[in-house]
Every structure is written in structure tokens, then in C-alpha cells.
Amino acid sequence: MDIDLSLVDFLLFAFAGLFTGVINTLAGSGSLITLPIFIFMCGLPPSVANATNRIGVFMQSGVATYKYNKTFPGLFKGVEWLAIPAILGSILGSKIAVDLDEKTMNYSIGVLMIIMLIVLLFKPTRWMQETMEGGTNKKSFLSIFVFFCIGIYGGFLQAGVGVFLLAGMVLVSKYSLKQANGIKLLMVLVFTIPALAMFIYYDKIHFGYGILMGVFQSLGAWLGVKFIAKIPNANVWIYRVLILVVAISAAKFFI
């Protein structure tokens, strides 16, 4: 599909891709920025923007997961107990997204962005205490149910799902926060695959914008894992910028 961006828009688009690639690698919730970019800058309908967003998520998650696996061998052992229910939930969530009309999807994205803004303001990582490493609770019924529900949300919208994944892995499955941040990338990758397939089947994706954003996000993910994670207070500044952008974007959905 054609890409229609002015030079200024292209530069902003590229910066957003790089920045959200870094965000999704170090913290999560980068889709809270790319979704408004697709809707308000690229002019995509909300349902198409929601689907198109998955291409970049898939590409950057693949890059970051590969990099994490090379850096921390064995980190993903046993994660299939969480990944399988998340994949099944993602199929259901993406089907719900496909069936919604544009007006309902628009308001759904706006409301969920406000909810995510509130979640971010409460800094959820403050109450995710470090636990003993090992993920000893990942085979429990509660873990399976929680990650099925997270998969539904991820399949439906994706934006902000990293926060829920971290909460589920630390509070329910008993991973350490350090482990959970790496495993989160693999989880996003695996449940994005069926959602992406669903959206492609229903012809909901703008491949031009999606692949272009994915290229910049993948580069951002690589930079995030290799360099930016080592910068003092990088997460603090990322968090502040994310709050500002999400607040502006959430308001714009209702204006």
C-alpha cells in the first residue's frame, strides 16, 4: 500500500519508531504511541491502525527476543506454560477486534488509553517486588487463566500489554522482575503471531506503514538491548515522555 507522508511527518514517524522500539524493550507500552501515530498522522481507521501496529510489534519483539536469548541463555526455559494460554487468548481477542465497528473501536482505544495512563501514573513496578528466581508458579491454574486473559487483551489492542505481562509474571508466576522483563518480549512475540495472522486474513493491515514502522522499531529494540539499557536513569526519562504522549493522545481520541 502507498505511504503518504511529508518530510516532517516522515521524520516524526521514524523517531516514533526508534523511540517505541527502545520503550518496548526496556519498559513496554510503546504501542500507546504508535497507535495514535497511525490514526492521526497516517490517517488509518482505528481498526486498521490497531492491526497494522502488530507488524512493528512482531518485528521488534523478534529482534529483542533473539538479542536477549543470546545475552541470557536459558531465560525462556519453561515459558510454554504461559505462552500457550496467551496464544489462545490472543486468537479470541483479535477476533473481537475484527468484529467491532470503527466508532466502537475508536472509543475502545480512547478509553483503554486513559486506563493505561492511570496505570502508568501509579508506577506499577513499585509494587512488583523482586522474588526468588525460577518462576515456580507458572504451571498453576491461576497462571494459566491470568495469561489467557492477558492474551485476550493483547490480541484485542496490544497497547500497554507489557505492564500486564510483567504483573502476571512477577505477582502470579513468581518470576523476578529482571527475568520477567526479558520473558515479556518472547511472550509478546508468540501471541502477536496468531493475532497478526487473523488481521491479515480479514484484510485489516496497511503493510506500507506497518513494515516501515517495524524497521524503525526493530532498530530501536536493538539499540535498547545493546546500548540504552546501560544509560543511567534511561527508564526515568522514557517513563516521563511516555506519560506525556499518552496523556495528549488519550485526550485527542475524545476531541
Written description of the protein model:
The chain is an all-alpha fold. The chain has one domain. It is 74% helix and 0% strand. It contains ten helices and no strands. Helix 1 (7-26) packs across helix 9 (207-226), helix 2 packs antiparallel against helix 3 and helix 3 packs across helix 8. The mean pLDDT is 82.
List the helices and strands and how they pair.
Blueprint: H1 7-26, H2 31-41, H3 46-71, H4 80-99, H5 102-121, H6 141-156, H7 161-172, H8 177-201, H9 207-226, H10 234-252
What general form does the structure show? globular
- Tally the helices: 10
**How far is the N terminus from the C terminus?**
29 Å
SSE string:
HHHHHHHHHH
Strand content: under 5%
Report the mean per-residue pLDDT as an integer.
Answer: 82
Helicity level: over 70%
Going by helix content, strand content and strand pairing, the class is mainly alpha
Radius of gyration: 17 Å
Biggest beta sheet summary: none
Number of strands: 0
Instruction: Provide the domain count.
Output: 1
Uncertain spans: none
